[in-house]
Design a protein that fits this description.
Layout: H1 7-15, H2 26-32, E1 39-43, E2 46-49, H3 50-66, H4 74-97, H5 104-117, H6 125-131, H7 136-156, H8 165-176, E3 183-193, H9 200-218, H10 223-230, E4 241-246, H11 252-259, E5 270-272, E6 275-286, E7 292-303, H12 311-326, H13 332-339, H14 343-346, E8 351-355, H15 362-369, E9 380-382, E10 385-398, H16 400-431, E11 434-436
Antiparallel strand pairs: 1-2, 1-11, 3-4, 3-6, 5-6, 7-8, 7-10, 9-10
Helix pairs in contact: 3-4, 4-7, 5-7
Length: 438
Amino acid sequence: MRRSVHLPTAWLISLGLAAASLAPNAKELSTKGVLLDRVVAVVNDGVVLESELDLETREIENRLQTQHVALPPEAVLRQQVLDRLVGEEIQQQHADRAGIKVTDEQVNAALEDIAKRQNLTLDQLPEKLAADGIDYPQYRLELKREIARQILRQRDVVQRIVITPRELDQYLDHQKKTATASNEYNVAHILIAVPQDAKPAQLAQANTLAHEIDDRAHKGEEFGALAVAYSQSESALEGGSLGWRKGTELPTFLADVVARMSPGDISEVLQTPSGFHIVKLLGRRAAGGPQIVQQVHLRHILLKPTEIEDDATVEQKLSRWREQILSGKEEFGVLAKTYSQDSASAVGGGDLGWTEASAFVPEFSAVVAGLKENEISQPFRTQYGWHIVQLLGHRDFDNTNEAARERAYEAMRDSRVEEATELWLQQIRDEAYVEMRL
């Protein structure tokens, strides 16, 4: 919906005028022009148009009504929506300047995931969107822009977060001593943001507002409506909802506070570098128990086609080796050590160790699923080249500790990402030229 445009042209379009060089009767048109659209925010060298604001506001109103969240006054909601659109425009401009390109394959993969969650095929998705009044080409374009913004965040926020093994051990030890480790929490959140270089007067103003909102929430005003009206978090227009999260997945500054709350409780005002926070606990439930997974033990040989050896040649060579292994003339491990082009596994005779079959690319996993123990597959192709794979065994594995460690790492990263993202968004907003015209 939104694009960066050269400002003079945007202004002309918004006023329904044409440049003199485009029409001989431009002067006459200038007095009889029809308002087609208007600029509601100037963002660096781009704009947000009123038509975009209207459309986004309607979509959010419909969603909030479906969720039974009380709507704030129309002017307040439109301002919140405009703030979000401005933030997205700033991020899009950063992504464009960074040269981030999103391929059609990436967009298609995202669309397939969206379709799958709705029990649809990719071919059925355009029809479903049309039935909901959504233009498919525009939806695809907006999705492409959203992926670009996600890549930008991955580069500028996520990849800069470092978690050491010692930090992970300390985190796990701390979680064992808290109630959050064995529970999941449904949390809503309000953020009153402050700039990184905030002056004492700005801090005092934000602090006062946060305490006023907290007081209103404690007196019974609907928390979701307050979030929509005042929160400067990315979850604001979802009524502040963060959804169900395991205790270990909560932002670090919330974990201990939420553990002491009961469903329905509202926290006091919490202060972090990103601003002042108010939290409501909507629900609590027990998290899952031990995690048993089925693992497979595999070894493989990988060959990659070249200009000299094409696909057919490589496939034929692997077929010949397979027959020699089955007849006892060759050893799988010896051939893998000598010829396999998977350097990581070749030194171990092609051994891939014990792992879940789903950890591999789909084509590889599909072949493994059809093998019996000690069976060697026919040659098959994946994005990496041609393989033969042998299934050495199955086992049920208690993955609880490994899964807990992996979840802890993701939780630490996500909690830091959440805070770092808020700070990053404030920073790029502070650096941008923004002129509101609502």
